[in-house]
Amino acid sequence: MPTNIHRLVEACRAGTEPACIARTGCGWAVMGQRQVLRGYCLLLPDPVVPHLNVLSPAQRSAFMTDLGTLGEAVREATGALRINYAIFGNLDPALHAHVHPRFADEPEAMRTGHPWLYDWTQAPEFNPAEHGALRDRIRRHLL
């Protein structure tokens, strides 16, 4: 059954996904569809798999290495204090990892909470005109 992750990977392969940052060793780095935190990204494996544990040890290691590399690129491009990482796959049952930059200027009540405490419906949608320069900065740090 195709998921949003499958659709995103197909669009990245086709070169039609504006949120695509770059091809990584194991998949694709993309900006999040909702920029709840500036620079929020995802790592998508290619090919898409159901979850982390179906990957071989070498593939799993490559995915986690790419995840850390993407997180470092996001931190460098945004000036974030730290990066939070998450892998769930409950809503979209396909492996994907979230990269959440965390900032000193976040509201105090949110600074130590998880990013899902934010109102995602109010977060700006990814827009190349608004977020393209940041996407490109992340790309430069990633490659």
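That was protein one. Protein two is written in the same sequence-then-structure order:
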Amino acid sequence: MATSTTPAVAAADIGNLLGQLDASLTDLRLDDDEKHSLAQTLRQAQPPEDGFRQLRNHAFTLARNRLAAQQDPVAVLRWVEAVVRALDVARAPVQATRSNACFSPGEACLNTIVQHFRSARRSVDFCVFTLSDDRIAQEVLAAHARGVALRFITDNDKETDSGSDVTRLRAAGVPTAVDRTDAHMHHKFAIFDGQWLLNGSYNWTRSACSHNEENLVATNDVALVRQFQGAFDQLWGQLVD
């Protein structure tokens, strides 16, 4: 009896999820609440792999239709990116919460950043005041070369500093947004595959590694990752408009 009803239940779940996608496209924006709701519904429904493919294909069909209707291509692209990220989060297996802290001087913080870039498979959003450590920049470029979707936010005060890697990364095709306001974009955090957050005082510089008293926390706490992802998405939207 259970095996005969399972496909019907899955079909109903997929239908509801398709409806969520349709509704979220009304304003050409998948906000943080909608993204979280979609990911939560997906986790609860646990659709088969074919279901995930159907949702992804439907999202791209909706986007193509909007583009054909000559609607804002940037807004459509952002909506598709948000849907794909929600699907990736939902597909990832639920893991026990793990957190650890590391400190400098010393290479513990550097090694943590490097290892997370090397492990990234789908996406990295990183938001740092300054980036001048070539050892990190090399890992960013390596991730970019293997097709990881990157988004980089930094501050204009450090953009052209001696040794800054901002221009180098932008020239390589890494999507980059720069805060050019009078205030500082002083964050130092990164989100890997929508699952891991690195955050702390640690600037991505050689002096932070070699001389400064700094800290870096790595965690896969779902609530924290979601909060920082929301902050990143909001800031990205402000800076690229």
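Residues 1-9 have pLDDT under 50 and may be disordered. Keep this in mind for the problem set.
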